[in-house]
Amino acid sequence: MGFPILSSLILLPLLGAIFIFFSKSKSNAHLTSKYLALFVSFSNFILSLYLWHLFDPSIAEFQFLEEQSWIKGFVNYKVGIDGISILFIILTAFIAPLCIVSVNSTVKYRLKDFLVAILVMESLMIGVFCSLDLVIFYLFFEGGLIPMFLIIGIWGGERRVYSAFKFFLYTLLGSVLMLVAIISIYWITGSTDITYLYNLGIDAKYQYLLWLAFFSSFAVKTPMWPVHTWLPDAHVEAPTAGSVLLAAILLKMAGYGFIRFSVGLFPIASEYFIPLIYILSLIAIIYTSLVALMQEDMKKLIAYSSVAHMGFVTLGIFTFTQQGLEGSIFQMISHGLVSAALFLSVGVVYERMHTRLISNYGGLVSIMPKYAIVLMVFTLGAVGLPGTSGFIGEFLILIGAFKKSFLVAAIASIGVILSAAYMLWLYKRVVFGEIKKDEIKKMPDLNRAEIFILSLLVLPIIFFGFYPEPLLSTTEISIENLIEMYNTNINLNLVEK
Prior knowledge:
Layout: H1 5-22, H2 29-54, E1 63-71, E2 75-81, H3 85-106, H4 111-130, H5 134-143, H6 145-155, H7 160-189, H8 194-200, H9 204-221, H10 230-237, H11 240-265, H12 267-272, H13 274-293, H14 298-317, H15 322-353, H16 364-367, H17 369-383, H18 389-404, H19 406-431, H20 438-441, H21 448-466, H22 469-496
Antiparallel strand pairs: 1-2
Helix pairs in contact: 1-2, 1-4, 2-3, 2-4, 3-4, 3-11, 3-15, 4-5, 4-6, 4-11, 5-7, 6-7, 7-9, 7-10, 9-11, 10-14, 11-14, 11-15, 13-14, 13-19, 14-15, 14-18, 14-19, 15-17, 15-18, 15-21, 15-22, 17-19, 17-21, 18-19, 18-21
């Protein structure tokens, strides 16, 4: 295919952002900027669906390859996709226009600059999932910090500056070692081309330190316990659209990194560090679920639940089973939809009451019945109820975990019970009970724009809960190829020993 579809997906939001940024201010500039940003992001989503239509899931190799020399003899701009990365591209392109539609009520000033930040974020996040060169991946991966830093720092809450710097420093410092590791890989192999490195295989004696270096970055961004403390602060202070991007996409970049690099490039080290991952994942699942039970702020509760759900993801990845890896990818897609929906739902009532404290709510079912219905769907999706997308991912991960260790799977299963406890308790306190404040009685139900946005999230959560085949069939061959490559490397290492 001659058309550079991946580069178009990366560049289209960036070009839209540049055009909006340099457009002249007029009396209706905010409205024009929003419509233009929405047109660009929606066009990108349509293009991502066309990419999915063209994609051949029966081919294990990377498809739609584009390569261009950038720094001669050192770095090539190389992009391509397989069955793993394409789903994250579609998720990113789907979430971005929803964020843009939601900014009307949540962003009160400098709307044009906010839209520019969202579009730049979209470009960089899609670039992460397309990159087939370590240096290009690193630039996209770290570049996303800048617009998110600005989104939190400029449009956030009262403690926005503190939260923005905490987010930036945690995630940047975690990635310094990854940069050192990338330079080391070039020194060892003479290349930063990911497909070349897959075929070459990195010497076992280097893998352990390199794995730890990449882990230092991915663990912070996932985020894994105990380097998760930046996430609740960032979510609480970020505007609604910022929280949606952070939870739905930004966290998935680290999960994708674990699959693509930790497992793909360093299989021997990944096998060695399985106990470490299992311990940290189980602590994240149980501990942060218990912390979520104690929260009084709705956003903080959902933020801690994200840490617990991503604990399931890392657990599934390092089972190195078909079910575990498929479940992890499915869980990331599902969590992207459910977490986006939950943060948007919190934004709906926050704009009406200007508080996120759970204790201030109650009795919304009689005042906002439409809101109560959609929030129930999202709550059940977060719980992992059969019939929602959340169930498929957790079920597959637990099957993969049972194949590896009954004890690990049994402990992880407790997290499913705890997630039901904190999410259903949240729903009970917000939706049922007595109306505690007169202001609640005056709250209007969902308007047309809110119904439109939330309905677009209800549909895939239920659809993929009943019919997960489109996602599973897309990833199947790529995961089989990854596991085969992993097992081959492990067996060769055993023979050498």
